[in-house]
Amino acid sequence: MNHSIYLAWNYLKYHWGKTLLLVFAISMVIFIPTALNLFANRGSERMMARAVTTPLLAGSKGSATDLTLSSLYFRDPGIPPLEYHEVKAIEQEGLATAIPLHINYRVKTQPIIGTSNQYFGFRNTQFREGRPMAVLGECVLGAVAAEVLGAEVGDAVISSPAGAFDVAGSFPLKMTVVGVLEQTNTPDDDAVFTDIKTTWVISGKAHGHDDLTTVTSDSLLLSRTDSIAVASKAVLSYTEITPENINSFHFHGNPDSYPVNAVIAVPKDKKSELILRGRYETQGDNVQIVVPELVVEELLETVVSIKEILTLAAVSIGLATLVITLLVFSLSIRLRKKEIQTLRYIGAARGRITAVLSLEILLVFALSLLLTLTYLLVIAILGIPLLEKLIH
Amino acid sequence: MISCRDVRFSYTADFSLEIDHLEIGKGNRVAVTGASGCGKTTFIKLLAGILRPDSGKIFLNDLDMTTYSMAELQDLRIVKTGLVFQEFELLDYLRVIDNVTLPLRINPVLKFGQEHRQRALELLDAVGLRDKSKRYPGQLSQGERQRVAVCRSMIATPEILLCDEPTANLDAKNRDAILRLIFDYCDTFKATLVLVTHDREIVSAFDQQIDLSTYSFNRNSKTDES
Fold it and tell me: What is the DSSP string of A324-369?
């Protein structure tokens, strides 16, 4: 056997160009469907893990998929917002803890998530440094967001306008970083968390400015009576919330009507969950409540179908490549007829010639397999984090 | 001792080789001559057991080769005979040293050992190719390649050397070197030599000459011992 391997190996080594080409082609044929499966499975696992740990989501009626994806992965919401009183409504009856999510704004490319400090406990997120938000204008960064923004505790980050022509639609608010989260390899890593009220400040629903009762400049006032002072456009809102100006921040209108994109509802128990689901399913108003696990499961069924089609295509290509490879070997044996004849003439056992030729094929497949494993190892080291980023 | 009795072989209706009686003594040097197409190569293949005669008997040291299976003939061939071809037939993907030791790697009847590697180097040394033992055949000249082929035929120390026009593609200098090498081997190991040649100049160096075109081509054969 050693001699057969020696001869087979020498043949492959001498014809290294042909060997490499075959090894590369075969390895790609094995690698593509394997990697596809690996990626799809890993992606599905990640998506499912996030969905499974989120019991219920409430949002405006519309696409359950949009609601789930925007709430779990902090994508731009595709459905209109709820009013804040819905958060209170869920909590009022003691059936569940309601965690609001406001997802409209960004700091550069990182999404600003307006929520409550309960979110960190719910996601079981640890603080790498610092603490949760305590007052208006404070924020906590996910691990990746901190890295991307180059910010740490004590630094400040500024919210970006939602669009180039939205200068008046959202205020660029300077927020103080008070905490940085441990990396979790979830979308939380990319987020800038702040209190939901701070996002309302960004949206202009709340603001702070100089106390008009003490203003002396007439240019800042349109009119003044004993009880009312009407400000002119010259009165500027503060762009940073500081201990000195925090008391001047106030909300206009009823905060119950302020926007919330989604509500994570964490029921007290299974019974509470069923009551909650039943209520929103029968009420028929503008609110829907979904089970993210079921929504993601449905979504993944589509992904699995696509994966199966792709796998089928890859397997078909693989079979074709296999046939071509065998054809190459069979043609090669024909071309080597004289060499085989010489071996027989000088006394080679028939089994030995067959063994050498078979080992050449086996070695090519073994090398292909080795190369495939190398690809997969590289993918596991470099590709999976990349995939996780994509999933985020 | 090689002996042929009433051997008949034909490829087609146009060609047949017939040898009624032929004896080649142990240690003899026999030159096989004849016109192109008269069956010289066929004769060598019959003696080597590569081809089987249609009828008749071929004896190798009193062993009737015609009763052997092809597999047994291969085992017999690799132990008893060394073959040299006109076109050298070296494997291009093996280095010179590996080409020489090839017979020891292709049949389990022979066991490859370190001593064979040493012997291969000695053979290459004897033909002036030791320093080229790591090269591939494609990096050698015609004469050098034929010397490697001759070394390969000798590696298992066979009793019989069967050479099919080994000097046909060589110049006079290389021809003489190859013949000297083959003759030296036969002298040292008392080996029998059957060598096909067109070269009339070298025939006188042999103990015996068989002219196949005179005796065998589509005729009743006879043996001619010179």
Answer: HHHHHHHHHHHHTHHHHHHHHHTT--HHHHHHHHHHHHHHHHHHHH
- Report DSSP state, residue B146: H
Q: What is the pLDDT of residue B218?
A: 34
Closest by Cα among A340, A389, A336 to A18: A336
pLDDT-derived band at B216 (thresholds 50, 70, 90) equals very low
User: What are B120-131's pLDDT values in tens digits?
Assistant: 999 999 888 999
Determine the Cα–Cα distance for residues B174 and A225; give it in Å rounded to an integer.
126
- pLDDT digits over A19-66, tens only? 999 999 889 888 888 887 887 787 788 888 889 999 999 998 888 889
Give the one of B75, B77, B93 whose C-beta lies nearest to A10's C-beta.
B93
Please state, in angstroms and rounded to a whole number, the distance separating the CA atoms of residues A113 and A133.
Answer: 12
Q: Please enumerate in sequence order all residues whose Cβ is within 8 A of that of A234, keeping only pairs 6 or more positions apart, or say none.
A: A219, A220
Phi first, then psi: what are they for B83, rounded to 5°? -115, 135
Measured CA to CA, the distance from residue A55 to residue A272 in angstroms comes to 11
Q: How many CB atoms lie within 10 A of CB A351?
A: 12
Q: What is the mean pLDDT of chain A?
A: 84
Alpha helices in chain A (DSSP H): 2-14, 16-52, 64-73, 85-92, 118-122, 143-149, 196-203, 270-283, 292-335, 337-345, 350-378, 384-391
Alpha-carbon separation of residue B158 from A216, B27, B82, B191 (angstroms) = 122, 12, 6, 7
| CATH code linked to domain B2-215 | 3.40.50.300
Q: Tell me which chain B residue has its CA closest to the CA of residue A5.
A: B105
Helix, strand or coil, per DSSP, at residue A208: coil
Q: How far apart are CA A265 and CA A14, in angstroms?
A: 67
CB atoms A352 and B107 under 8 Å: yes
- C-alpha span between B78 and B63 (Å, rounded): 15
Q: Which residue of A has its CA nearest to B106?
A: A348
Q: Is A360 part of the contact surface with chain B (CB cutoff 8 Å)? A: no
Which ipTM did the prediction report? 0.85
Task: Please give the residue of chain B at the shortest CA–CA distance from A13.
Answer: B93
**pLDDT tens column, A95-107:** 899 999 999 888 9
DSSP-based three-state secondary structure for A74: coil
Q: Is residue A354 less than 8 Å (CB to CB) from chain B? A: no
Q: Which residue of A has its CA nearest to B78?
A: A347
Between CA B193 and CA A200 the distance in angstroms is 106
Please tell me the distance in Å from B181's CA to the nearest CA on chain A.
19
Residues in chain B, total: 226
Please, which pLDDT band fits residue B219 given cuts at 50, 70 and 90?
A: very low
Strands B29-33 and B81-84, how do they pair?
Answer: unpaired
H or E element that contains B215:
helix B212-215
Contacts of A1 in chain B (CB under 8 A): none
Domain ranges of chain B: 2-215
pLDDT, position B108: 82
Of A14, A343, A353, the CB nearest to B93: A14
Q: How many CB pairs under 8 A join A and B?
A: 66
Question: What sign results for the dihedral spanned by CA atoms A36, A37, A40, A46?
Answer: negative
Residue B221: per-residue pLDDT: 36
